[in-house]
Amino acid sequence: FGEREDSIYDGHGIFAVNSRVRLDGVTLERFAKMGLSGRGDTQIDARRMCVRDGHIGYWLHEGAYLNLRDSIARRNKSSGVAAYDFSIAHVANSVFDATLDDALYTEHEAVIAFTNGVLTGNKPYAARALNDSRIQISHSVLAGNEGDVLAKDKASVVLGADVTRLGTTDSTDPRIAAAASAGRNNPHLRKFGQAASIGPAAASDLDCN
Length: 209
Known about the structure:
Blueprint lengths: L13 E4 L2 E5 L2 E3 L4 E6 L3 E5 L2 E3 L3 E5 L4 E5 L2 E3 L6 E3 L4 E5 L2 E3 L6 E3 L4 E5 L2 E3 L6 E3 L4 E5 L2 E3 L5 E3 L4 E4 L4 E2 L8 H8 L28
Parallel strand pairs: 1-4, 2-5, 3-6, 4-7, 5-8, 6-9, 7-10, 8-11, 9-12, 10-13, 11-14, 12-15, 13-16, 14-17, 15-18, 16-19, 17-20, 18-21
C-alpha cells in the first residue's frame, strides 16, 4: 500500500462512516493501515479490544466519537489513538504499550480523555497534541516512554489527578505493576467505595501478547 493513511478501505481493519458500532472482544492484528476507523458522524462503543502489530490502532476524523475501555493496544507502528478535526475519544481502563509514533495523538480541535490506564514503552511520546487539540490524562501510570508528553501551537496535554510518572524505566519495572494494582480513587469509575482499577478490568479474558 503506497499510502497508509487514506480513506480507501483496502488494508483497514474496521472502517465505519456515519455509523453506530458496538464491539466486544475483538482482536485486530497485522493490518496495513488502521485497525478501527471512525469518520463522519460515527459513534463507536468498544470494550475488550486487542489491537496489535499494525499501523494506527484507532483513527478518528470529522465528528467521530470513540468510547473505549478494558482494552490493549500493543506494538503498533504509528499512533495508538489518532484523533483529528473535532473528533472525541474517551479511553478508560486500557493499556497502550510499545507504540512507535505516540500512544495518544491529536490535531485540529480533537480531544482525547484517558483515565485509569497505563501508557508504557511508547515513542516518541505517550501523548502529543497539536493545533487547538487537547489530551487529558488522569488516574493513570506513565512509565518507560521515550517522552511522556508534548503540546505545540495552542494545544494542551493535561496531566490531571492521580497520575504516576515513573520516567524512562524498563517496562518490566515492578513499580509499574505495583502502581497499577494500587488502583486510583476515581469517583467516576469507583465501585462500592473501593479504588477503581487501572488497566483492563477483564485482562484475564484478553490474549494480547
